[in-house]
Amino acid sequence: MNPTYTLLEMRRVTRNYTGMFFTAVLPAFLYLVFGSTVQAKDETVGNGNVAMYVMISMAAYGAVLATTSVGGNAALERQQGWGRQLGLTPLRDSGYIGMKAIIGMTVAAIPIVLIYLLGGLTGARGDTGAWVLSALICLAGSSIFSLYGLLMGSAFRSEAALGAATGSVIIFAFLGNVFVPLSGVMLTIAKFTPLYGYVGLARYPVTEGNLADGSFDPLWVPLTNALVWLAVFAAGAVYFTRNGRERQ
To answer: Where does the chain cross the membrane (predicted)?
Structure first.
């Protein structure tokens, strides 16, 4: 991957993403509402407390909003002729997708750092290793949704693609056991949705696989979910990116 293209793309994203501020502020606000209460500080979850559990959930959600937005911006780029310009360069489709993932992770660091800072200041509690590992998983795992955003942006030649991509993340969060602890049939369904594995892995250093309904997830459950959706999004992103170039 040529760093020149990555730097150029980063400059374009910086100019286009002043609205990214809200992808950090909204999840941070949700953490303060649900994670900084006295009850959240006092209740234990695994080797941490509920405040840390909520903190990780909101950081992962904010990171996914950021990376999905970066990937979904491909729809706007195509309208502006950027895809045609890239088609004239030696940059391969896989390189373009990798570049999007790297830029998305860079932007995703903003809500993660902000929310973890708020967590540290408002009583989130857990092992040092859990703090570090969960933050790294939030950051690395968010790249999966750069591919999702790129898939959506490449598949639909419309500005609505970006809104649809980020809007669907909210639905995935409700269905994926992110916002509200699920149980029974809804929890079973959640295990097949895109956010379940990623957020479950991010929480794992704290929960150690224990779920709010008293059940237990072995590590392979969220890991398999995340890897399957990574493969699905990557394959779709490559297909639609290549197909879009052939049409231009």
So the answer is: 50-76, 97-118, 130-151, 163-190, 219-240
Report the predicted TM-score, pTM, of the whole model to 2 decimal places. 0.87
Could you tell me the sign of the dihedral formed by the alpha carbons of 196, 197, 198, 202, in that order? positive
Token pair belonging to 245? 């170039």
How do 44-45 and 48-49 pair as beta strands?
Answer: antiparallel
The pLDDT of residue 94 is 60
Q: Phi/psi zone of residue 157: left (φ > 0), alpha (ψ -120 to 50 degrees), beta?
A: beta
Of 73, 150, 104, 81, nearest to 6 by C-alpha is: 104
Token pair of 196, please? 């379940």
Domain segments of the chain as ranges: 3-244
Question: Rounded CA gap, 59 and 28, in Å?
Answer: 8
CA dist 134 and 129 (Å) reads 8
| Beta-ladder partners of 48 | 45
Token pair of 214, please?
């008293």
**Three-state DSSP state, 210:** strand
Q: What is the largest CA-CA distance in the chain?
A: 58
> Under DSSP, is residue 188 helix (H, G, I), strand (E, B) or coil?
helix
What is the CA angle 126-127-130, rounded to 5? Answer: 90
pLDDT at 24: 84
